[in-house]
Specification:
single chain, Rossmann fold, 60s Ribosomal Protein L30, Chain: A, globular
């Protein structure tokens, strides 16, 4: 039976689930990178949260790895591109911590507007001079939400409930969806930033979103703006933010994530981490608590366990490094099963080297998401000819490497 290593602490229900399915599960929480490199070749799967980095030597030495599971949403601690090249499936649980992250965002909004952590710290030190902590009300102010996915949408609703006027920037969300939320869409990010009393970020970390809020953008902000980030570190230029707060242009920031984060398992005595933003009283910094609720931990733990189980059993799952699968995956399964068989037959029926595969979908399949079926056909085709393992993750890549042309089309009438 396959072996699984879980390197970051997560709720026990997911671990218990995997054990109940017969998997051998090791849980060296907080294992060092060096120790992980020494043992990773023993495992078929690794499950992490945000602390463990699955890159470079970990992947080089993980010669038996078939799946990397992320108990949570963000995967910037995983080299997804390299996993794809190696045929390693990357799965996460984007739904599991949605409410936790949204509530954390709103909590930090209140904190940064009312100076709650600073006042608490002063009170703990017997300083009750409340005039030092005069804040501002949310009611009537403009909240700029960058990203209206599941988390951003919940945050927007809650801020509307607090009396804020919410404007948003998200080029990928339909006008109908924006209107249904009672939000005003702003087409240009610069225009959004200029009008905001609050900027809150809810987008994934990509090369395009790195330093999304930099020196130029901060200069565009109106004086007294406050910034909240519970998404991913690196989307705010921290040096530019430091200068903007120090100058008084930005009133404050609340950051649950940083570009470089500390080791979350070390004691204060062991910790060698420091961020200059911690020197500023106007900055609230928390140790990546966005998903840290009992409910989110339970949801993410079981969700990632089930996804890892499915991959190890050779089943089709919605993975980070696969095209998005719309609709009910179970309804597509009979087609993907048939597709694999047809792919294998296609190769065996050809007498010459295959230069082109043409797939024509008709009938009921015209209105269904067919990409998973296409991948299944390619997987079946390549499983006969490839010397290395082929799966849904690397099938398209391997077909391209072979120089085989792929043509897909849909028609309502097939003669």
């Amino acid at each position: 039976m396959a072996k699984i290593i879980v390197t970051d602490k997560m709720a026990s229900n997911g671990i218990d689930y995997l054990k109940s399915k017969g998997f051998e599960v090791d849980t060296p929480f907080g294992i060092s990178r060096e120790e992980l490199i020494e043992v990773i070749d023993q495992y078929d799967a690794i499950i992490v949260r945000s602390a463990t980095k699955v890159r470079d030597e970990v992947l080089d030495r993980g010669t038996n790895l078939k799946v990397v599971g992320r108990a949570g949403n963000g995967v910037d601690n995983i080299d997804v591109q390299e996993c794809t090249r190696r045929g390693i499936t990357v799965v996460n649980t984007p739904e599991g911590n949605t409410m936790a992250a949204a509530e954390m965002s709103v909590a930090l909004v209140y904190s940064v507007f009312r100076n709650i952590p600073q006042a608490y710290h002063a009170a703990k030190n017997k300083d009750f001079r409340r005039n030092k902590f005069v804040g501002e009300e949310l009611d009537g102010k403009i909240a700029a939400v960058i990203g209206l996915g599941k988390i951003g949408s919940i945050v927007a609703k809650k801020l509307i409930g607090a009396g804020m006027k919410v404007v948003a920037y998200d080029p990928y969300i339909s006008d109908e969806r924006v209107a249904s939320l009672g939000i005003t869409r702003i087409e240009n990010l610069d225009d959004l930033i200029k009008m905001a009393d609050l900027i809150t970020i809810h987008i994934p970390k990509t090369p395009e979103s790195k330093n999304l809020i930099g020196e130029r953008e901060l200069a565009l902000c109106k004086k007294g703006v406050r910034i909240v980030n519970v998404a991913r570190g690196g989307m705010i230029d921290e040096k530019a933010l430091y200068q903007a707060i120090s100058s008084g242009h930005v009133a404050g920031a609340a950051l649950d994530v940083q570009e470089v984060e500390p080791n979350f398992n070390k004691t204060p005595e062991e910790q060698d981490y420091w961020n200059p933003l911690l020197d500023l009283d106007q900055v609230i910094m928390t140790p990546h608590l966005g998903a840290s609720t009992k409910e989110a931990n339970v949801n993410c733990s079981l969700g990632v366990a089930q996804n890892v189980e499915a991959v190890l059993n050779g089943e089709l799952v919605s993975a980070v490094n696969m095209p998005p699968i719309a609709g009910d995956l179970e309804k597509l399964r009979p087609y993907t099963t048939l597709g694999e068989k047809l792919g294998a037959i296609y190769y065996q029926a050809e007498q010459e080297r295959v230069k082109k595969i043409e797939i024509i979908y008709s009938g009921d399949l015209v209105d269904k998401p067919t990409k998973p079926i296409t991948l299944a056909i390619i997987k079946g085709f390549l499983s006969v000819v490839s010397e290395s393992e082929v799966n849904y993750v690397n099938a398209q890549l391997k077909l391209n490497e072979m120089g085989v042309e792929l043509i897909e089309s849909k028609t309502s009438n097939l003669e």
